[in-house]
Amino acid sequence: MIKIVRSKELSKNREGSMEEYIRDLATVISNIMIIGKEKAARCIFFDRVTGTCTLLKFDVDIPTLHTIQINNEWRPRIDKHPEVCAVCPFWRSREG
Ligand code: SF4
User: Fold this and answer.
1) Residue 92 CA, closest ligand 1 atom number
2) Does 92 reside within a domain?
3) How many domains does the chain have?
4) Residue 72 covered by a domain
5) How many C-beta atoms lie closer than 10 Å to residue 68's C-beta?
6) Helix/strand/coil percentages in the chain, nearest 5
7) C or N terminus of the chain, fewer CB within 10 Å?
């Protein structure tokens, strides 16, 4: 289960221990994943069948990403990497 911590709580922990710092980082990463999943679910370029982005394509397989090769191009598995959507500037709404 993901616990969402408000940014005010994060700033309170700035003077805290390494454990608190790591917990803060985990919270930020969790937020990135939640935002990315929401953006993917609503993006016109997300292919729900393959779990890939149909816009982002690479000429080579990226070792740090789960990918699928389609027509000599490598598409990132957005269902495995919602963080890609969180920072993506190409998002377009399915709702027009
Ligand atoms: S937000 Fe970006 S990476 Fe994610 S599915 Fe849409 S275009 Fe692809």
Assistant:
1) 6
2) no
3) 1
4) yes
5) 14
6) 40, 15, 45
7) N
